[in-house]
Automatic annotation (TrEMBL):
This is Bacterial regulatory s, gntR family protein. It holds the Pfam family GntR. GO terms for molecular function: DNA binding; DNA-binding transcription factor activity. Keywords: Coiled coil, DNA-binding, Transcription, Transcription regulation. Residues 107-134 form a coiled coil.
Length: 228
């Protein structure tokens, strides 16, 4: 069979999201090219090992997202100029967790650099407040508060970047990240909160050292990605 339409059989409950993600990955990487006709419903059902309703819903999601178009009597095609119209938060919720964290890594490295260059005293106070709350939550083993204060600390760093687009992007990411952090914190007793890295990141931003801020952000995120 053509590798362009070679997929992994679905084995868990998020059937529609999994079908959408696999198709979207083929589109993003160029395996399915603009103007290509995708396989028929029966062919996709066999490839993915799912029922007709799952395939129809997945196709509907991608049509609604602006990537696929149905041509009556001819089939379903990748649009000639596919531009995703799906809200970012919905796209992130469907994505694999590792994909979200890899994108977060790219975003947060620039956030920490800009925060070190642009932070003011109010930013530092805001970061310190959430960092202290995070430490207290860990001492008390309050996992909900830990997850909340961790995200709020990173949001405070984003706010210090003074870049409206970056702040809005990270705020969108933070909704998905908070869900992921809660899951990681509940399911893995060995989860390392990397408190030392967070303190060093704060100090680097306080000292307005962008290189050190990037260093500690990278160490923190690579540690979490390794856990995942």
């Amino acid at each position: 069979m053509n590798d362009k339409f070679s997929f992994k059989t679905i084995s868990h409950h998020k059937l529609v999201d999994d079908v959408v993600n696999q198709l979207q990955l083929k589109i993003s990487t160029g395996d399915i090219r603009p103007g290509d006709k995708i396989p028929t419903e029966p062919e996709l059902m066999e490839m993915f090992g799912v029922g007709r309703s799952t395939i129809r819903e997945a196709i509907r999601v991608l049509v609604h997202a602006g990537l696929l178009e149905k041509k009556q009597g001819f089939g379903t095609y990748l649009k000639a100029s596919p531009v995703i119209q799906e809200p970012l938060v919905q796209r992130l919720h469907r994505a694999e967790l590792m994909e979200v964290y890899e994108a977060r890594k790219m975003l947060e490295l620039e956030i920490s650099r800009l925060a070190a260059l642009r932070r003011d005293e109010e930013d530092l106070q805001n970061m310190r407040k959430h960092l202290d709350e995070r430490g207290l939550a860990l001492q008390q083993n309050d996992r909900e508060l830990y997850a909340k204060s961790d995200i709020e600390f990173h949001m405070a760093v984003a706010l210090a970047s003074k870049n409206g687009v970056i702040i809005d992007l990270f705020r969108t990411f933070s909704e998905v990240l908070s869900d992921a952090l809660r899951k990681l914190n509940k399911e893995y007793g060995s989860h390392d909160p990397h408190s030392y890295y967070h303190e060093q990141l704060y100090e680097a931003i306080k000292q307005q050292d962008p290189e050190l801020a990037v260093k500690w952000t990278l160490l923190n995120l690579e540690g979490t990605i390794a856990e995942l």
